[in-house]
Amino acid sequence: MAIRRILTIDNAADLAVLKQISKPVEGPVTDELRGLMDDMLETMYDAPGIGLAAVQIGDTRRVIAMDLGDGEPDGEAAEPAEGEEEARTPNPRFFVNPEIVWSSDELFAYEEGCLSVPEYFDSVERPARVRIKYMNYAGDTVEEEVEGLYAVCIQHEMDHLEGVLFIDHLSRLKRERAVAKVKKAARLAA
């Protein structure tokens, strides 16, 4: 496994890749594809984040890695101290050629962030529930209905596969503000 560089919107070449529509994976899930998924997961954990589309590391195949940490809390630890997050059991999920086959009319607003738009967060409204179909890490076809953070995250990552960033759902003013903030942070870090 290897940590890959995450493409960000402050770099014109990166942005050009991020705006591409990802191509379907042809054929079965192979060891090479599982290697990509392993790298994506390690990269996502290192960032840290909860979801990553392959295009965010420059691979334009329709692949997503996600871990919402929705396993059981580790051990019998006491409540976390203020400012600390509760340790969670990893629960990685992988999606090859994901598609939304149904979405609810009910909407859900959630404050989203993105590893390709570092340090910027804003509220985006999306369908509250979706039914998704995809191949998993083993290559099995899965269809399931999801809601809450899972629904938000999978829709956010699937947007990446279509060349759409979460800031594209915002007003032009907010989008411009996000881009300026990311560019300024990149200049200060250089």
TrEMBL record:
Binding note for cofactor: Binds 1 Fe(2+) ion.
Keywords: Hydrolase, Iron, Metal-binding, Protein biosynthesis
UniProt-listed Enzyme Commission number(s): 3.5.1.88
Active site: 157
Superkingdom of the source species: Bacteria
InterPro entries: Peptide_deformylase, Peptide_deformylase_sf
Comp. bias regions, Acidic residues: 69-85
Annotated residues for binding of Fe cation: 114, 156, 160
Keyword Metal-binding recorded: yes
Keyword presence, Metal-binding: yes
Catalytic activity: N-terminal N-formyl-L-methionyl-[peptide] + H2O = N-terminal L-methionyl-[peptide] + formate
Record-level GO BP terms: translation
Molecular-function GO terms, alphabetical: metal ion binding; peptide deformylase activity
Residue segments, region Disordered: 67-90
Cofactor field: Fe(2+)
Entry similarity comment: Belongs to the polypeptide deformylase family.
Function: Removes the formyl group from the N-terminal Met of newly synthesized proteins. Requires at least a dipeptide for an efficient rate of reaction. N-terminal L-methionine is a prerequisite for activity but the enzyme has broad specificity at other positions.
Protein name: Peptide deformylase
Organism: Brevundimonas lenta
Gene field: def
